[in-house]
């Protein structure tokens, strides 16, 4: 979520300390604010915030910031405050549940009232405010972000105040358990700063503060909160902020891997282990690039290589059953995926080709404990145009079945899913234009844009492709063999389109740029029309690009899947879930490509412009048939 004028936020405990700093930081972005606090200092903060917010807005018929004196332990007062916020600002985009206290008396001197009050403010009120924020966001039918302010003492013990530590630990686990609200586009995260110089910390022993390396600057806390708000991938995330280590997500991925289990949807089906015994031959065939050339066929050849044992301890041997064909195979064979000058790239020759595949694990190295032979798996590592491939177990993406549809969800599906979320920051109720929409990745882009509640316009060349796109729910299909894209866009979308998922390049890029609305985002996914010119790829000049995007506050943004490997697992889970629940269709081109020798034909076919959906090669046709019967 982009922090921009016109959003609204509610901050509890906003009259002082971290809450006040967050209120003022949000106000500087022009965000309308409600401050909830028991202290009357909230009035002053609201007036400071109001002055800031007003600088970014002309005449408003409502207060830019409000203070609502509220006891957060009183559910009725809280409900009334959320209601007032909704009525005043027409929604709730950001809610920061920050109110908290330290336990005022030592635990063993407590008469029970004191610790109960601490737990009520620090934990129970946070739960209550989270509930009210979710309900308000659901009512507004818009995406929202909730940040619960925990503490570093919710991650590890704080010996001086066990009740504080217990309550903040509760906030951390409560928040992390709410990840699934992201499906309703409500992201709930927890912020865990170490000691910041506030009234609360003033009561602490200065020796402890020194031990921790001193107070944390308030700017780091604001930076952390803004990161959780802006980064759309953060849902259920816990951000630890310390003077010593800066901003760090907790637990680290390595820690999380120890207890993370695969989603139920996957586990249920993947208990289906492949039942046939698989002979491991002494050698296998694969495709290697011998000379750098954008003509895949002349750049590559099929070679036989020995299968060497023992496997490296952390590697697995995968029998590839289906491999995916990608427009960029021709860029790979021309050496574009490697950096360096021509000599450096040539020194890598010969290298293995192919970006992705699915198959069955047939052997595992000594230190691999989480995977076994017989398990279906996907890979997105170079060298998957091969009958067998050895890969590090950390690159294995476990899947339910090694089917062609799963291959389509890898490079093609993940590109659409991650690019639309991260680079396009896709919201709803926008007009989204997808080019080459009936291709491998385009088919996913149109469906994901529809699922997010957008109007989708799609271009393609041919009747069969147009039919597929209509079946996928596209609102306006433009078959450029029948209609002029520019004329249609001008007549039917005079205000322009908000997001373009563009993968054709050349003249199509120009056309899309000219069709972009004010504030529009043009996503450069690729430029297939430029990949195979007579002398290879020629970079284009786009005269006047800066002038165009400047005058309309537009963005042209690049996206390359390789840079988003940290999100593959999560987005593949999402696509598999959407597919298995019937919300996402996967089109695989029906033309059969059988065996490793058919790969070059399949690459040519993709570039002929005739393919519909994802082009897939069945590397082992006899296995493919057995699998289809299962
Ligand atoms: P694809 O869309 O299945 O490619 C086939 C389609 O592209 C054809 O049906 C045709 O569509 C169009 N096309 C083919 N040759 C063309 C040419 N010479 N001029 C104009 N259009 C042509 O292929 P894909 O693998 O899914 O890739 C699509 C695009 O996404 C490519 O640009 C690719 O590089 C890019 N991509 C990028 C990433 C990334 O990380 N950035 C990842 C995956 C893919 P119509 O004629 O129907 O329009």
Architecture overview:
It is a single chain. The protein is α/β, with parallel strands linked by helices and 630 residues long. Helix content is 36%, strand content 20%. The strands form four sheets. The chain has an eight-stranded mixed β-sheet with strand order 3-2-1-4-5-6-7-8, sandwiched between helices. Strands 11, 13, 14, 15, 16 and 23 form a six-stranded antiparallel β-sheet that branches. The longest helix has 28 residues, at 113-140. The protein is globular. Mean pLDDT is 92; it is low at 264-272. The chain binds NADP nicotinamide-adenine-dinucleotide phosphate (NAP). Residues 326-328, 411-412, 415, 436, 438-442, 459-461, 465, 503-504, 525-529, 559-561, 606-607, 609, 611 line the site of NADP nicotinamide-adenine-dinucleotide phosphate.
What CATH first level of the largest domain would be assigned?
Alpha Beta
Major beta sheet summary = 8 strands, mixed
Q: Give the name of the CATH architecture of the largest domain.
A: 3-Layer(aba) Sandwich
**Net shape:** globular
Distance between the termini: 44 Å
The fraction of residues in strands falls at 15-25%
Q: Count helical runs.
A: 22
Number of domains: 3
Name every ligand kind in the structure.
NADP nicotinamide-adenine-dinucleotide phosphate
CATH superfamily of the largest domain: NAD(P)-binding Rossmann-like Domain
The radius of gyration computed from the alpha-carbon positions, rounded to a whole number of angstroms, is 28 Å
**CATH-assigned fold name of the largest domain:** Rossmann fold
